[in-house]
Design brief:
Length: about 130
């Protein structure tokens, strides 16, 4: 399987974001927070959005760098998620630190959170 992060995997709709923040569940591993929702099967397996606070990082260059690092960490480790034929997952990765972290630190946090997400999916199946 290719480790890509295509258009069909991106969470873009305002409605989906609002739905996630109103009744999604949360996992935290510094410096990343996952907000996710497991839904009945739709035309996708998983959609991912990335958010970095404008209040904490005033310059767009800094926000974009952190978003790129977060997306890359997800892309390289997305095989850790066991997708299901019964469920679709919406997920937002929120960068919570006030300082820029290295890619390695972000990737480590993403791995931990993907494992937790996997456990949540397994308990949903049972």
């Amino acid at each position: 399987m290719k480790l890509t992060f295509g258009k069909n995997e991106k969470l873009k709709s305002r409605k989906a974001f609002d739905e996630l923040f109103s009744d999604g569940k949360t996992f935290v591993s510094h410096p990343i927070r996952f907000v996710y929702k497991i839904k009945p099967k739709e035309d996708y397996n998983i959609r991912v959005g990335v958010s970095v606070s404008k209040k904490k990082f005033k310059h767009a260059v800094d926000r974009n760098l952190l978003k790129r690092r977060s997306k890359e960490a997800y892309r390289l480790n997305k095989l850790l998620i066991e997708t299901s034929e019964e469920y679709s997952i919406d997920l937002v990765m929120i960068y919570t630190s006030t300082k820029q972290q290295s890619f390695e630190k972000i990737e480590e946090a993403v791995k931990i959170l993907l494992e937790k997400l996997n456990q949540a999916i397994q308990t949903k199946k049972d």
